[in-house]
UniProtKB/TrEMBL annotation:
The keyword Ion transport applies. PANTHER family: POTASSIUM CHANNEL SUBFAMILY K MEMBER 18, POTASSIUM CHANNEL, SUBFAMILY K. One of its GO terms (molecular function) is potassium ion leak channel activity. The lineage of its organism: Eukaryota, Metazoa, Chordata, Craniata, Vertebrata. The chain crosses the membrane at residues 21-45, 104-123, 135-153, 286-306, 318-336, 342-363. It is found in: Membrane. GO terms for biological process: stabilization of membrane potential. GO terms for cellular component: plasma membrane. This is KCNKI protein. It comes from Rynchops niger. Keywords: Ion channel, Ion transport, Membrane, Potassium, Transmembrane, Transmembrane helix, Transport. Belongs to the two pore domain potassium channel (TC 1.A.1.8) family. The gene is Kcnk18. Its main location: membrane.
């Protein structure tokens, strides 16, 4: 009997983990499939378009030929004037005159473009030219951006939970270290004795109500109010947990005995997981300085790695590029020579955008709190003082 029960427990545990992870995996997989479908669509539409040499292109070539002939005829012309003319002329040139669309709109290039669309980065280096591509780009962004924000919110909950627990554990460890330094041997022993005496005075009888519990404690009135309340709530919680444990086991046995009910309960739990998206971000509360430090370290790590394949970038330029990317500003002034290598950084971009999003959320909460304090302060100053009139 025990041998058959153990595999069943393991199977149920695996199913529980699977259904808990299912919503998160569903969102990420949807975003990946959406990006791949967009890459196939744009590479086919924009990559196979025909390049028509316009009248502007012919005018550009004529001006370039005229400047070159003038330079050859008049060698004494100032070099600065020649540079200015060339610079002005090249600014009027369009990239499509000199680049084959198939070289830009490869599968990886289109995938990179799709990532810049639904992450709202929009570098501007790659953009659709055909009318069909522009319409499809608007439609693609219309559905892709909400999906991206959903993934950011969902994974932001996970990241917020990890950061909160790490920060709380660090605070507990810090308080323990400080307590061990401040507490000497004699004072600790006295404190432990007082604590043990206080605990021996409190006895929990299982059927007691709150009133009976209060009446049964002879020394309750003599204790300080804050300690008395803490002890009462701890006892009530302990007794409540003892009463709920058998009921929980019975419910598990009842659900496990009926597969249809178990399946329905599992579906309800999955739906509840969808409803809880974004709740952890609302509860998240850590110092804003800590989040700024996390962002600085996160961007610095990428800025140290990125120049390995983008040789034109040094650490400072790479740091600037990563910051502009993660904050979704995307000026486009820094261009990548190998965008397909940067696609392997997609997970880095998503996690980094979540960290920046959490930092912005914390900053927003702090600003709201500051505005509330300022408005309350101004309201108190402008409140007219009450005048007391004699009877």
């Amino acid at each position: 009997m025990a041998s058959t029960a153990q595999p069943l427990r393991g199977k149920r545990a695996c199913q529980k983990i699977f259904w808990a992870v299912f919503p998160h995996a569903c969102f990420i997989l949807s975003l990946v499939i959406y990006a791949f479908l967009g890459a196939l669509m744009f590479s086919h539409i924009e990559g196979n378009r025909k390049v028509n040499l316009s009248e502007e292109y012919r005018t550009f070539l004529q001006s370039l030929w005229y400047i070159s002939r003038n330079l050859s005829d008049n060698m004494t012309e100032n070099e600065e004037i020649f540079k200015d003319k060339i610079h002005t002329l090249l600014n009027t040139a369009e990239r499509d005159w000199f680049v084959n669309p198939k070289d830009i709109w490869t599968f990886f290039g289109s995938l990179f473009f799709c990532c810049t669309v639904f992450t709202t980065v929009g570098y501007g280096n790659t953009y659709p030219v055909t009318r069909t591509g522009k319409y499809l780009c608007m439609l693609y962004a219309l559905f892709g951006i909400p999906l991206m924000f959903l993934v950011l919110t969902d994974m932001g909950d996970i990241l917020a939970t990890v950061l909160s627990k790490s920060y709380n554990e660090f605070k507990k460890l810090q308080s323990k270290i400080l307590a061990s330094k401040l507490c000497s041997g004699s004072t600790c022993n006295k404190g432990n004795e007082l604590k043990s005496r206080a605990q021996t005075k409190v006895v929990i009888n299982e059927p007691l109500t709150i009133m009976e519990l209060l009446k049964s404690q002879a020394g309750v009135k003599r204790k300080q109010i804050k300690y008395r309340n803490a002890e009462i709530f701890e006892m009530l919680i302990a007794r409540e947990n003892e009463h709920t444990k058998p009921a929980g086991n019975k419910s598990i046995e009842r659900w496990s005995s009926c597969p249809e009910l178990a399946r329905g309960k599992t579906m309800c739990r999955v739906i509840e997981n969808f409803d809880k998206i974004g709740k952890q971000l609302e509860k998240f509360d850590v110092p804003i300085v800590l989040m700024v430090l996390v962002i600085f370290v996160y961007i610095s790590c990428a800025a140290a790695i990125l120049p390995n394949w983008e040789t034109r970038l040094d650490f400072q330029e790479a740091f600037y590029f990563c910051f502009i990317t993660l904050t979704t500003i995307g000026f486009g002034d820094t261009q990548l020579e190998h965008p397909k290598f940067f696609l392997f950084f997609s997970l880095y971009i998503i996690i980094g955008m979540e960290i920046v999003f959490i930092a912005f959320k914390l900053g927003q909460d702090r600003l709201i709190g500051l505005y509330k304090k300022v408005i309350s302060f101004c309201g108190e100053k402008k409140m007219p003082s009450k005048k007391v009139y004699p009877k």
